[in-house]
Amino acid sequence: MSDTTGNTMGETSWIDIGAVGGVFPTGPLTAAALVDAGLRLRFATGEATVLAEWLRDNCQCGECRIVQTDERRIRPWTLPPAAAADVTVTDGTLEVTWSGGHRSTYTDHTFRDIATATRRGGHRARLWRSGDELVRLGHDEVLVDDAGRLRFFDAFQRDGALVVTGSPTAPGSVLTFMDAIGVAVRELAIGKIFDVRVDPAGFNVAYTAEEVPPHNDFANYTDPPSGQVLAMLVNEAHGGRSTVVDGWSVLHDLDRHDPSAIDVLSRVQVGFRQYSATADAFSRAVLVERDPEGRFTHLRFSNQLMQPLPFDHPDLAAWYRAYRLLGAAVCDSANQVSFRLQAGDMLFVNNHRVLHAREAFTPDGPRHLQDVYFDADEMTGNLARLTGEAKNAMVLS
Question: What are 354-372's pLDDT values in tens digits?
Answer without folding.
Answer: 999 999 999 999 999 999 9
